[in-house]
Amino acid sequence: MLSSITRRFTLTTTTRTFARAMATGPAQGGHISDEMLAKLGSLSTQALVDGLWVMGWPSAQIDGARPLAPGMKCVGRAVTLKFVPARPDIAQDKPAGGESPEYEAFEKCGPNEVLVMSSVGPWESVGGDIKFLRLKQRAIGGLVTDGSVRDTDQIINYGFPCFSYSTTARQGPAAMQPWECNGVISVSGVTVRPGDAIVGDQDGVVVVPAKVADKVYSIAHGREQIEEIVKEELTKNPGPPGKFYPFMSGKIKVDSPLGKLLASKGITPENSNQFEGSADW
């Protein structure tokens, strides 16, 4: 005799009976090609944020992740690692040694991947020189965390881009344990799915959802082209930029000073999605 709870989660057909698992969606939202990944990496984080904003997507900047050293820039598909607060049974039940979720995540990383580690707090250590030597060996595309890292000088010497909340001398295991590789995580309140594009520069780190990566690139690239034209014009003819601002992608009026400037450069609603009525998102 099945219990009432079991019966409630049992699905019967004429030929088979299936025990239903708890509902969950797919961890990954899509695939980003190497070509598109390189294109996204050629843009500034500001342009990518603007592209997502005009599409109505939530904030995608990981505010708690700053470059560990000047000049660091990263781009890659996200490999995610979730930490949970330390508890004796968690330490006992998670796979031990080389089977730990963090080492599983390390081995999934290479030049086109960025390891994104979700910490339980900004000052907790997600790792240091010995663990991250493996990331150097894997030639990882980058490391991003809303926690802190140890052995700062050595990590900088390893040469891979690292973006963290800060640095610390603390040991991590006393506060948290790695629990899951390649699940959906929250990093500084921003959702990251495995396979999302992660782009970092001196202004911070942005998550571009895989499902809309092509469209975000189209908007952001178009916007950067326009900004270059505006800067060029203001360099040739110095003056306040106010006559060209504010402008929003998909809202530029053809008869505005900016619209006329763009037309003189061959950019019109016929070949750009930046104008009023031409937005394709």
Task: Walk me through what this model shows.
The structure is a single chain. The chain is an alpha/beta fold and about 280 residues long. It has two domains: about 60-210, Glucose Oxidase, domain 1, CATH 3.50.30.40; about 215-265, no CATH class. About 30% of the residues lie in helices and about 20% in strands. It has nine helices and 15 strands. The protein has helices at about 5-10, 35-40, 45-55, 90-95, 100-105, 130-135, 150-160, 215-235, 255-265; strands at about 10, 15-20, 60, 65, 75-85, 115-120, 140-145, 150, 160-165, 165, 175-180, 185, 190, 195-200, 205-210. Strands 3, 4, 5, 6, 7, 9, 11, 14 and 15 form a nine-stranded mixed sheet that branches. Strands 1-2 form a two-stranded antiparallel ribbon. A two-stranded parallel ribbon has the order 8-10. A hairpin with a 4-residue loop joins β1 and β2 (about 15-20). The termini are far apart. Its cofactor is Mg(2+). GO terms for molecular function: metal ion binding.
Multimerization status: single chain
Helical content band = 25-40%
Mean pLDDT reading: 91
CATH classification, class level of the largest domain: Alpha Beta
Q: Helical element count?
A: 9
Structural class: alpha/beta
CATH architecture of the largest domain: 3-Layer(bba) Sandwich
Largest sheet: 9 strands, mixed
Binding site for substrate: 150
Organism: Fistulifera solaris
InterPro entries: RraA/RraA-like, RraA/RraA-like_sf
Pfam family, one: RraA-like
Topology:
Elements: H1 4-8, E1 10-12, E2 17-19, H2 34-41, H3 45-54, E3 61-62, E4 66-67, E5 74-85, H4 88-93, H5 101-107, E6 113-118, H6 129-137, E7 142-145, E8 148-149, H7 152-158, E9 162-164, E10 166-167, E11 176-181, E12 185-187, E13 190-192, E14 197-201, E15 204-208, H8 213-236, H9 257-264
Parallel strand pairs: 5-6, 6-7, 7-9, 8-10
Antiparallel strand pairs: 1-2, 3-15, 4-9, 5-11, 5-14, 12-13, 14-15
Helix pairs in contact: 3-8, 6-7
